[in-house]
Amino acid sequence: MKKNIDPIFIEGGAWILIIALTFITLFFFPEDKAQTYLKYLLIASTIILLVGYFKSRRLYIESRLKTEQILKDNAELLSRQKTIDLFFNNSADGILILDNEQKIISFSPGMEKLSGYSKDEAIGKKAQELLKFKGDSENSLLPDAVFLPKDLKKKPYLKNTLMTKLGKEIDIEASYALIDEENSHKALAVIRDITYENELVKRDKEFIAITSHQLNTPLSIIRGYVSLIKQNEEKFTGEQKKYIDEIYGSVKKMIALVERLLSISRIEEEKIKLEKTDINVCDLLEKLKENYRFTDKTTLKFEMPDKNLIIFADGDKLIQVLSNVIDNAIKYTPKGEVVVSVKTDQKKAKFIVSDNGIGIPPDDLEKIGQKFYRAQNAIDIDNKGTGLGLFIAKTIILKHDGKMGIESKLGHGTKLTIELPINS
Amino acid sequence: MKKVLIIDDEQPILDMYSQALKEYKISTALTGQQGLATAIKERPDLIYLDIIMPQLNGLDVLKELKNNEETANIPVVLLTNLPKEASAEKAKSLGATDYLVKVDFEPAELAKKTKEVLG
Q1: What is the DSSP string of A61-108?
Q2: Chain B interface mutation, best of A204, A213, A229, A276, highest count of B Cβ atoms under 10 Å
Q3: A256 in contact with B at a CB cutoff of 8 Å?
Q4: N or C: which terminal CB in chain B sees fewer CB atoms within 10 Å?
Q5: Out of B85, B103, B105, whose CB is closest to A273?
Q6: pLDDT in tens, B82-115
Q7: Considering only CB atoms, which chain A residues are within 8 Å of B105?
């Protein structure tokens, strides 16, 4: 094996050789020859000196740069450490570091506040011995999966109810990161108190339940009784029939409005649940048609598809979507025609609602379907709309893995298409 | 004649559905307790049950009905204005035959549904 010789030995060896040669020249050579040889030796010494000087200068500069870099790195590390300490000490979330036996090695002030335990009480204790969950929860604070990186994706966090030192129950959400060190693993856990958030969600749910019950109870009574009256409408005069139809139409509009407002709350909670079944599209359109039996001013036409067309969807939600779209088309087609048709191929069913109404200005087109958004020419016609109908429709369609498209020409009409997979 | 029991704390609702289901023998109850007693006494073929009622709510009534051997086999359809996501799953797990939202059902449609359930 080739060994690298340290340059210092080469330099030292060169000097020893020069000194030895100088002595030999002085003592063993005649004076005239010695003078010539000494000149050469002087030149050689000067070269060695110069090489040594430049080399040591280079080494000096390098070491100075290295020192500066080390100082800079240290300052950066220190600043980073300070930031981490600030974050650790001031975060409202609780932060814990656990060793691979789940023993607590760091316990942040946020964690002290959240759990009621002091740092001194916590350090060195096993996490599951100190921090207890409500009931017989199988979850320890730290899922074992945290130490098994392949499973980490499955359980990156958990939600549970933690008992504080004083016995108070708090809802928590914990997220984890594995600190993978050479000889051991540690885990960082960040614990967030979500009691207040959960309380808000709960209140929201209660609000939905109460609102729907309080508003829908009188509405269902009005709707029911009007429909009972209508069963005997042959007994009424034309004018009476008209009044009853007005009440019936208005109560249905009000029911739809309440449903829209409730849908918004559900969407915001992401709680829209689909109850998909096999739906016969013709039956669905017949049901829809029935809802528009009193529509006048505009002619609403239904072009029925193949009687055997079945799609796998949530029928009630689909009626809600199509009603929202048809209501809009009728509202913005003061004189003209609204046509509902269905086109299919093997994979998709395309519902098309086209009208020759006022159309949508090009600048508004891409914003249609955003929550509360209404085009100016729509506001001019009807200033009571909510701008929610198409937003809800779009959300429900996306939930079905479908697509909603809109084409429009100002002053000429609009064509809205809803594409749904037949078997999703 | 088949017997239908309607349990709801709103008298107008009871009257409205009684009118729509006049081809059946109708019993009505304005509270959960009254409904339970009527169910045991009359053994109806079908029970329509509201959820939000004072004292004993519909889900508790349903639990009692299903825990009582005498009434356990009577089909119970929840007829409420609570949205489906609020209680439908729970009602089904307690043994409800169906869950209907009142505001979506006109009396004539309820008559149709009754025919379907009673066969």
Answers
A1: HHHHHHHHHHHHHHHHHHHHHHHHHHHHHH-SSEEEEE-TT-BEEEE-
A2: A213
A3: no
A4: C
A5: B85
A6: 877 778 888 999 999 999 989 888 899 999 999 9
A7: 220
